[in-house]
Structure prediction request, 314 residues.
Amino acid sequence: MRAVTPRRIALLLLALVLAGCAGPAPVKVPVVQGPEFTFFVAADAHYGQSMWDNNEASNKANIDAMNALPGSAYPAEAGPGAVAAPVGVLVAGDLTDTGEYLNWNGYWLLHRHDGFRCDFGIGGEGRIKYPVFESYGNHDITNNRTVVINGIKERNRRREGLRLSPEGLHSSWDWGSVHFVNLNLYPGGPGTANNSLAFLKDDLAQKVVGSHRPVILFHHYGFDSFSCEERWWTDAEREAYYETVKDYNVIAIFNGHLHAQDHLQWHGMDAFIAGKAADGNFLVVRITADSLTVACRTQQGWGQCWKKAIVQTP
Prediction:
């Protein structure tokens, strides 16, 4: 056995430091082969909302429900078959309640509290078993805090296969023939939207134009009466959004913010609201060669279901 010398110890410590500098390993965005796949949509986890009602425990229970659902039969309204393992989970904003470091990263207070980042890993390394694609909401930027935004940028850098906006915040990718775009708070210009509309215009022009490929968009603010109040986003911003997407085959838009599950149409496009994750709500979305099915999942089991025909042209 070779002697353990101070020099060898120093070299070992240096190697460990250099290995740590490489940062966490990258995670590849799942590749979908064929036209059929499933994904989940959640929103409004609000980590840190209250230290008294154990908001974290509620979110963990919802994650456990997502983990356990594959293999369960769909309700009759959604058609035959069982829920497949999702290729990913979209989380449409308000990941934290106040955008503070403790809400995002967790903390110790008598016992360990896990923040959003700990429970929702990016590739199954957290409590949730599936890849996660998150957007920020208005609560995440409370008092102009940047912890969550910077955290999303860091997580995006680890995701191999995303097309990123110049600052690394907004993103897009393909699952099968369907093109997904994450617009974070809402599609808008400078300010709290961080130029997401410009990214959307460029992304659709680069990846979708002329193809009639199905497109799915998600962001925090939606189109219900509460979300359309001027304090969130304006009529002019929504009109600019519509002008950007009106000539594309947008088969669904997923939102949060309202804390209730619902479906509505905006300029003839279907928009679905995920409900509040901390209350046990999420959406199960199944895409086949010719249909899209959205089924609500609650603490009580299955809720409303919606199904529509889609045309997929690669």
About this structure: The longest strand covers residues 301-309. The first helix runs from residue 6 to 21. Confidence is low (pLDDT under 50) at residues 10-22. The chain has one domain: 38-309.
